[in-house]
């Protein structure tokens, strides 16, 4: 197996993340999205990527499969799968490699 699994964790887009795609062949990228914010606690900053940042990272990282995760169920997430899917409608090549996981639906992926 020569492919890596990348898990972003709660982070925002910043240039060192691009290095991951330059250094490794990413088979599966699990990327935390949803634009999580806590304005009453820390102001307007975001704790996870928004849809625009997700697309930028995927286009730079070139994973074989990109899976947006950790973006629903709580009020601090400001973007949903639906809003990300709408943004991806304008990026058909990127949308082709994105898989939206269904809640509680098992999925399997093979690394090369």
Q: Give the terminus-to-terminus CA distance.
A: 5 Å
Based on secondary structure, the structural category is: alpha/beta
- Number-wise, the strands total 3
Shape descriptor reads globular
Count of discrete alpha- or pi-helical segments spanning 4 or more residues: 5
How many distinct domains?
Answer: 1
- What is the string of helix and strand elements? EHEHHEHH
Largest sheet: 3 strands, parallel
Radius of gyration: 14 Å
Mean pLDDT across the residues is: 92
Low-confidence stretches: none
Our estimate of the beta-strand percent is: 5-15%
Helix content: 25-40%
Widest sheet: strand order? Answer: 1-2-3
How would you classify the quaternary structure? single chain
How would you characterize the overall build of this protein?
- The structure is a single chain.
- The protein is α/β, with parallel strands linked by helices and 112 residues long.
- The protein has one domain.
- The protein contains 5 helices and 3 strands.
- A 3-stranded parallel sheet has the order 1-2-3, with helices on one face.
- The mean pLDDT is 92.
Defining traits:
112 residues, alpha/beta, 5 helices, 3 strands
Layout of strands and helices, then pairs:
Elements: E1 4-7, H1 16-23, E2 26-32, H2 39-42, H3 51-61, E3 65-69, H4 81-88, H5 92-95
Parallel strand pairs: 1-2, 2-3
What's a concise summary of this model?
With 112 residues, the chain is an alpha/beta fold.
């Amino acid at each position: 197996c020569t492919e890596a699994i990348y898990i972003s964790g709660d982070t925002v887009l910043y240039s060192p993340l691009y290095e991951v795609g330059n250094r490794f062949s990413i088979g599966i990228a699990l990327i935390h999205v949803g634009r999580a914010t806590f304005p009453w606690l820390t102001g307007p900053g975001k704790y996870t990527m928004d849809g625009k940042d997700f697309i930028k990272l995927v286009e730079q990282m070139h994973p074989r499969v990109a899976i947006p995760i950790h973006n629903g169920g709580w009020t601090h997430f400001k973007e949903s799968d639906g809003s990300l899917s709408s943004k991806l409608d304008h990026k058909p090549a990127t949308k082709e490699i994105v898989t939206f996981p269904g809640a509680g639906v098992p999925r399997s992926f093979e690394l090369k």
